[in-house]
Design goal:
This protein has a single domain, classed as Transcriptional coactivator/pterin dehydratase (Gyrase A, domain 2, 2-Layer Sandwich), CATH 3.30.1360. Helix content is about 35%, strand content about 15%. The protein contains three helices and four strands. A four-stranded antiparallel β-sheet has the order 1-2-4-3. Helix 2 runs antiparallel to helix 3. The longest helix has 18 residues. It is elongated, with a radius of gyration of 15 Å. The N and C termini lie far apart (about 35 Å).
Length: about 120
């Protein structure tokens, strides 16, 4: 079954409407997550890895001390497909989740202690 490949204009429109922190760059959709350091970077990498493996759609990652770059493209289709948009949205939802800011029993990491500020939220 062939997958629909989106045009550059369609990708840019979708990203602007649904994934504003992602950008189209050289045939990939790309997002840079800034972190507070190595421990947080590894948490992001492991989270993305788990989601990618569960989805069976694998991004390219660039990993550094205080950031992770995630790049998605459907190689078999030679372009951006729904697989890329769906995995990007799932990654965004999980990485940007901030318990304690939305009510409920989960409090999230302590704000008063810098050791626990892992992700630099947008």
């Amino acid at each position: 079954m062939s997958e629909r490949v989106y045009s550059e204009q369609e990708v840019n429109q979708y990203l602007a409407a649904s994934l504003p922190h992602w950008a189209l760059e050289n045939g990939w959709i790309r997002r840079k997550y800034k972190t507070s350091g190595w421990k947080a970077t590894l948490m992001v990498v492991n989270t993305v890895g788990h989601l990618a493996e569960a989805a069976w759609h694998h991004p390219d990652l660039t990993v550094s001390y205080a950031f992770v770059i995630v790049k998605l493209c459907t190689h078999s289709a030679k372009g951006i497909t729904d697989k890329d948009f769906e995995l990007a949205a799932k990654i965004e939802t999980v990485i940007q989740w901030q318990p304690g800011t939305e009510g409920g029993a989960l409090e999230g990491t302590p704000n008063e202690d810098a050791r626990f500020k892992y992700i630099k939220y947008d």
